[in-house]
Design brief:
Layout (H helix, E strand, L loop, with lengths): L1 E5 L6 E5 L1 E2 L11 E2 L10 E5 L17 H5 L17 H11 L7 H7 L9 H12 L5
Antiparallel strand pairs: 1-2, 1-5, 3-4
Helix pairs in contact: 2-4
Amino acid sequence: MKVETSVDGKNFTSVGTASLSAEDKAKDGATFVLTLEKSVKARYVRFTISGSGWTFISELEVIRNEVAYKDMPAFTTGDVNGDDSVDAFDYQMLKAAVLNSYEATEAELARMDVNDDQSVDAFDYQMLKAFVLGTYQF
């Protein structure tokens, strides 16, 4: 079963293929399992099931691995330099990273992804600029 996610319901990104769990292969019903390497933020999940006949999905359970999140530091989106303030300094760092004149760290890249689409680009730059200018809230 192919699994895709989307923030807007229009542009979907594949996150992997869910496999039939070993203990469910002999049952009438089935449990499919997909384990992700990193978290994915999404509002929509699309399942593509190939085969013939009807397929019904009656239950969906998403389980977060607490061990993976235990040591992850909390941060504010847009606070690129991590000083607990989203300001012009953050905007300039993001601008430099988008223009390839600054090589951001992994932590900085996570904070730069303002629209949370798993990439840092001009859209994040425009959103952070608008936030700093007071014309947009995230």
